[in-house]
Amino acid sequence: MWRFIGFRLLQSIPVLLVVITVTFFLVRLAPGGPFSSEKAVIPEVKAALEEQYRLNLPMYEQYIAYLADLAEGDLGPSFKYPGRSVNELIAAGFPVTAELGFYALLVAISIGGIAGIVASLRPNSAQDYIPMSVAMIGICVPSLLMGPILILVFGIYLEWLPVSGWGDMPGDKILPAITLGSTYAAYIARLSRAGMLEVMSQDYIRTARAKGLPEWQVVVRHGLRGGLIPVVAFLGPAFAGLLSGSFVVETIFQIPGLGRFYVQAAFNRDYTMILGATVFLATLIIVFNLLSDILAAWMNPRLRSQYGGR
Amino acid sequence: MVPAAHMCFRYSLDYMITMRLSASRFFLSFIMAATLAACGSGESNVERGNREGILHVGNGTEPQGLDPHVVTGIPESNIVSALFEGLAVKNPYTLESEPGVAQSWNISEDGLTITFYLNPEARWSNGDLMTANDYVWSWQRALSPAMGNQYAYMLYPLENAEAFATGKIDDFSQVGVKAVDDHTLEVKLNAPTAYFIQLMDHQSTYAVHRPTIEKFGKATDRFTPWTHVGNLVGNGPFRLKEWQLNRRIIVEKSNTYWDKDRVQLNGIEFYPVENISSEERLFRVGQLHYTNSIPLDKIPVYRAMENSPYVNAPYLGTYYYLLNTNEPPLDDVRVRQALSLAVDREQLNNTVLHGTNIPAYGITPPGTLGYQPPKVFDYNVARARQLLTEAGYPDGAGWPGLELKYNTSESHLKIAVALQQMWKDALNIDITLANQEWKVYLDSVDQMDFQMARRGWIGDYIDPNNFLDLFLCDGGNNNTGFCDPLYDDMILRQAPRAASREQRYAIFAAAERRLMEQMPIIPIYTYTSNQLIHPSVQGRPSNLMNHVNYKYITLDSNWQAEE
Does the global pTM surpass 0.90? Predict the structure, then answer.
């Protein structure tokens, strides 16, 4: 197992380097610069700005200087927000995005998992079709539609929940978490249904039934562990996806997370912020994929033996 | 509007009553009621704000920063103008200048020397007295090339300021500003500048607190934390209390401000609400006193309301198309005129723009401190067809094609499509549309890599000069290739030397007439500000700059929602 983890960690270094390099040069090759503005900027001002941000140096020197700073954990000053470092912006936005992602994941697992398991117990019956149709709708309805619908119903007509904000009023975290989680709930429902269907037709389940266990014990004690492996494998990428894909939800609900900074950075050609957020999120994605692989290996004896661990 | 909290409570109560609770259901309902009560655990921001004197403002985007010599946007200046104050401020009703840090000023006979007399009571928020030297130091900072201040040109009317800002001279003592004594600031101008006092209300001309800035770095460093909470020292009616990135900025009334008795608000909370639909929803549930904007499709709904909070007012900005006069077919003035005359601006405004804007026939917005732009042309298809025939394209025959560039946005697209159709119908010519992402589009415009391009210009100060000097031969924002020495002479030499405002405006009108006869641009509409303002907000009149002077604002604590 340790060999497996070590190997995966080593693998991630070149992956990260490629991500950094490609992003570094791509953003600089994109037309338009951080200091293009609607009002003409005189050459002297532009030169002064470029010097302050090292943009006057040849590109390879900028690249080397960036890597040197990065090695010390310094992601550089933001172009768009003078007076703020990229580290500071990420530190301000990430905890919020992570919290949102965590709640969304809870929503996704609880709704999706239950729907999928319920559906799998009586395949091709109404108990299967109804939750699965709802799940399909969940996948299809994008959060930029789901969010406003939830706001209209629960925020404006019923006035049960705040329409936006994060931690300002009680209950303002509920709608964003549901909005962000619903798409993933739908995926998880489908994954858990498929996983459970496969497992429930296995011989050992028949054996469990044959020895007279009540059905719910068969499902909970024997079915779930095998049936949810695909879901667990999906959790890593899903959480990473929730973190990097929360931009729309953050915008709709006025949530001060990383997603808004990240997307705005691209529009603003905020080179250091784009790079910083990309490096940060790439690292997270690698870590979460690794964690979910470890978890899946732990749950699946066949994989576990493959990596020679206990 | 009904306060959310009350509704919430009422619903939960109704629910419990109508359900005629059995004991087993009671527990469930109790949980539900608790959740419901939690949802509106207090009053809305507006109700609480009215009681406590706190204004809640939808402010567009997260500000880039709060350094007056760095920031450029409107959301930033909304906050900076609460934290700092210029030598003169603007009356929100008339937009005429009023005393700020300077309690009075004197303009010499020849208009070249202005003496500001600082209010001896004017203080920084840490208690330090303000002096004339604060301005000399701050203006040096604002003009220093190393500062990279994009608004340095606001100080160019000063003698030698431009030379200093562009690095032609290094010695700041040659620039036309000096402290005569602690409370007297003397300014020398290149030429009489009627609007100079107005510029004193622009953040680029604000004084900043030298000891604070030097505590955190060099004078010209752009990224030191001097503007963060606890560090920032300003001189405005408010001081910075809290700054949560992408969440809110809170300012509270300053007790060192010289005119603090006039300030009725105890504080302001600025929310960076980028999504205008979210902003409208926030307003609807009473979380904002006023919004920054309003979604176009909501305007008819609000217009239909009685006592509507919707406010629409002319704004100091013009939406127009740039024409590249260096390239055929637009090098021919007749083609340019034909294109402009074939645009039915009234129809465009009434349909695509929901009647929210003002059709424009010149570059200057109407009523710019009394100035009215001359109307040189009108919608005239017959004349447009005739002009195009004279130019060699009768009924569009032989038309070489033309491309219109605009930055990606649904509203720009709608306007472009409408005009494309008008040109097809009136002149039988084809225009192709090309959209570009914002920064790409900015580069295209800057390098004049276009035939026709969308453009908007928002005035920095309220004077026709701010629009007309765009089209000087070497104007940095000209972007059309238009160059007329007589026009330059009128703007640069004749207008500044005019004896009176009337004479000056007559020269501007003649210049604008010349400009519109040569038609290097197609003016389309004058912007308007469109926003929602809660009826409890007083002292925030509509004006051409959508300028807010927080000193004038009061909140009516007796205001009650009509059921």
Answer: no
Among A259-268, B383-392, B473-482, the least confident range: A259-268
User: Which pLDDT value is given to residue B428?
Assistant: 95
Higher pLDDT, A138 or A279: A279
Cβ distance of B227 and A83 shorter than 8 Å? yes
Distance between CA atoms of residues B193 and B190, nearest Å: 8
Average pLDDT, chain B: 89
* Nearest-angstrom CA–CA distance, B517 and B363: 12
Contacts of B463 (CB under 8 A, 6+ apart): B194, B195, B198, B368, B369, B371
What pLDDT does residue B27 have?
A: 39
**What are the b/e assignments for B140-171, b being 16+ CB within 10 Å?**
bbbbbbbbbbbbbbbbbbbbbbbbbbbeeeee
Distant-in-sequence, close-in-space partners of A105: CB < 8 Å, separation ≥ 6: A181, A184, A235, A238, A239, A242
Q: Which of B46, B79, B228, B245 to mutate to test the interface with A (most CBs of A within 10 A)?
A: B245
Give the integer Cα–Cα distance in Å for B68 and B142. Answer: 9
What pLDDT is attached to residue A186? 85
Instruction: Say whether B438 and A45 touch across the interface (CB within 8 A).
Output: no
Structure tokens at A202: 């296995």
Give the number of other Cβ atoms within 10 Å of residue B49's Cβ.
27
Helix axes B333-341, B410-427, angle to 10 degrees: 110
Cβ of B247 within 8 Å of Cβ of A166? The answer is yes
CB A105 within 8 A of CB A177: no
Residue of A nearest to B69 (CA): A82
- Does residue A156 carry a pLDDT above 60? yes
Query: What is the Cα–Cα distance from B543 to B85, expressed in whole angstroms?
Result: 19
Q: Which residues in chain B have Cβ-Cβ distances shorter than 8 Å to A52?
A: 146, 148, 222-223
pLDDT at A309: 46
**Does residue A95 sit at the B interface (CB-CB below 8 Å)?**
no
> A-chain residues within 8 Å CB-CB of B286?
none
Report whether pLDDT(B277) > 70.
Answer: yes
Task: Write the pLDDT tens digit of every residue in A21-65.
Answer: 999 999 888 888 888 877 778 888 888 888 888 888 898 999 999
User: Given an 8 Å threshold on Cβ–Cβ distance, is B11 in contact with A159?
Assistant: yes
CA distance A33 to A270: 8
Taking CB atoms and an 8 Å cut-off, how many pairs form between chains A and B? 162
Other beta carbons less than 10 A from residue A40's beta carbon: 18
Which residue type, as a one-letter code, is found at position B448?
Answer: M
